[in-house]
Amino acid sequence: MQNVYNPLPRGGRVQIRLLTILPADGPNDDIELSLIHDASIRFYETLSYTWGRPHPSFPPEWDNPKSTQSITVNGYPFEIRPNLFSALKHIRETKSGQERWWIDAICINQNDLAEKNHQVRNMAYIYRKSGHTLIWLGPEDSTTKAAFEGMKTLSKYWNARSENLKMVQIQDEEDKKKYLKRAKIELKPKHMTQTIPALIKLSSRSWFERAWTVQEFFISGKFQLQCGSHSCNWGDLTGSYHLLEQHRIRYKPSDPKSPDSIRQALIDMESGISQCYKDLDYAIPQVTQLHLKRGWKKRFYKERLLIPALMIIRTRKAANPRDKVFSALGLAHLDTPINVDYDMPVEQVYIGTTRRLIEECGSFQILGNCQYPPRFPRVPTWAVDWSDVCRRDPFPQKGYIDFQFYIPEPLYHPCPNSTLSARFAQHGQSQALIVNALLMEPIVFTSTDINQVEPYSNDLVNPRLTALYRGQWLTEFIDFWSGQSDRNFDLVERGGPIDIFKPHDPSSGGWIYTPSRESLYTAYRRTIVADVQWSKDSPYWLRTDSEAKDYLHPSMAYYHGLNIFTRTRVFAVSKSGFMIFAPVEAEIDDVIAIVKGSEHPWILRPTESGFHFIGQAYVHGIMDGELWDGHWEDPPPNGYTEADFNEIFII
């Protein structure tokens, strides 16, 4: 292979090789390529594809790096993977043969590590400068034709809708009748039994779940999707999926005791499709969320939003765990770029990335993505192990981005007017993060994981979420408290029998949560959504008001927050009675810490040589600086001062 490549210059403007696919007399002729380096060529096309099999239904050997097919490059034999081979055959059969192409597996000398590092560092530039990108989903199968024909029909329905109908809100029975009338037109039996299953299979193609395809898709200006002989533009695909997404909208009637849903009504229209809709729960986000997030690309680069780029790519697959970081670097600008080096140990890539983001962003925002313990044993607990798919959504905080909505200012101030203090030092065999922290008190109670919560039968949205809303975790805590001999929870004033649905009346002698001077149940409900709400008037995460009257009703807005934030979190209580929304990994005797410069308290686990970082937490009643500013009616129980902060090692 060394005869195929001449070294590329690495100074000044990015230099690349381009290839031309030579014409053939027949479809079964050998594939021959001409590979050149000519800096004067300005127009070229790029290919976005996956190296392994395009779908699980294809032969497993397509995933084997040793399973290759032979082509010729500049007269020399060259081995490539089967999916790329199928793409080259398609291009040769459908293009003029004059096009110049950049395809990573061929245009980069994969055996030259220095060249690979340099070219990968400039991948975003290469795709941004290309005139067109062909997204190759792989060869077609028996369902591909139905998927492409159906999506174009559904997309026409979507494009024909008015803007009001695209944003339809089902408010009453009349709205529901109008909507179902249209649904009968848009979701004909053929679509339900053929198109939707075909689209589900199409969206499960591996291109939609690989790490590198995110950058290629975000950066490319013009692109076309191709699956075998079938093609479409991105608008056709997203239009059809937006239509199907809207048909999944849950209809919530005014009477919560009579739950109903648009989805169920649609299922009743055509029997035997319930599984189809269940599958859509996974398939639709694969497409529509990728489409929505494409609109972030300017903001990513302008505002250096590498963290949300890493969060997107973390959920995707990569053969090399380093690519969970390297494939995101082209989407954001940093003053000091993170080095691309495939010779660097994976642990050092992850440690260096976390450290760089703490230093450059001037915040601990990145730590919201930590999961305990890291999968790689030599990754310290404060560094994000991007190889491990985290199912926990970070709490909203400054720099957090959710679709197009960006949070520019902190939502919480547990340690107001403090500045970030972070140092890094070698500590034993790992690198330690050194911070200024106040160690408050240990956890004495943790609830069950939501996945183990007994479902509540009268389901409004989700049986387990309904159980939490109705006080499942709070009841567990009260049962625990009742079994304690000393019952020493200073911050909870115990009154008569608790009625969690009865508004708090100070004269009734009910249960009171001292830090916020509200009923125990109201404090609980605010705690299990981190005291934020998704505002309808301004699509944005906002803090609740102190009364929280409307928000705490069992509304769709409340369940939205409950659904997001309870994933892999538990309700916990500290020694003196602070309510905590903590990572599911939290255990008894873990300690609450207030850290200078952090928007959230931390949960730490003491060890012989330092502390393990378990995760960020929400602690009800201290998130607005109440420990320091005298917000409570009574003084804070411990009277914390600046002298209570000390340097601690997170390892």
TrEMBL record:
Q: Which residues form the signal peptide?
A: none
Q: Which domain of life is it from?
A: Eukaryota
**Which is a Pfam family this sequence falls into?**
Het-6_barrel
Which protein are we looking at? Heterokaryon incompatibility domain-containing protein
Q: Taking every annotated instance into account, which residue ranges of this chain make up the domain Heterokaryon incompatibility?
A: 44-216
